[in-house]
What does this fold into?
Amino acid sequence: MSLNDNLSNTLTMKKAIIIIFFAVISVSVSGQNKKFNNAFVVSLSGDTISGQIQMKNSVSLCQGIKFKKNDTDSTITFNPFDISSFCFTDKKKSYKSLKFKNNSKELIPGFGELLFDDEIKLYKFYQRSYEVNGIKYNNDIAYVIETDSMNYNLLQTRSVKEKKEGVFYENQKFENSKSFNLVVKEYLGMLSVVFKDCPEISESIYKVNFNDQEIIEILEKYLKCKRENNN
It folds into this structure.
């Protein structure tokens, strides 16, 4: 065998090793993406079943989960209202089957992440963006306040509207531009309904922005106000 042949064979082997190396990395990354964490689900009848749930992004977890009892068991898909709730034991994150309002004011099922747990509870739902009648809606978050007697949906709708020359919106004139974002803070009116028995915090309500921290803070103010009034 000539020197050129040996060199050619060596290069071919090196290429094969490189291909195998990246293939192993690809499989490893794919396996990581399918990582399962210790968790449990609660059935509709109230039974707790321990096992593992596949870790996914927040949007996907709100739509449904993949569950298995152990490493060798087959995977089961649970959609909202197939089960009552689920919880990651390592991360101490829990989700409950609820109904959330979307931009079309429709109640849709989903798993809500528990953010605040007291006399009243706050759940967060991550919603995929979608389009209706040519308008793209990006309301990727919704909240539900759960009380003993009722659930309240908190919604902020955001949509893209076409701008036309001379159009006024909130005392602003839009010109020479194709679109603008329209934000409707519907959640403020709902918070006023929830907190109607504590008028002391009414002014604070309309300063609340649509995020976890500020909604939790106003819930804490409300509970403090309510407890002081009951003493």
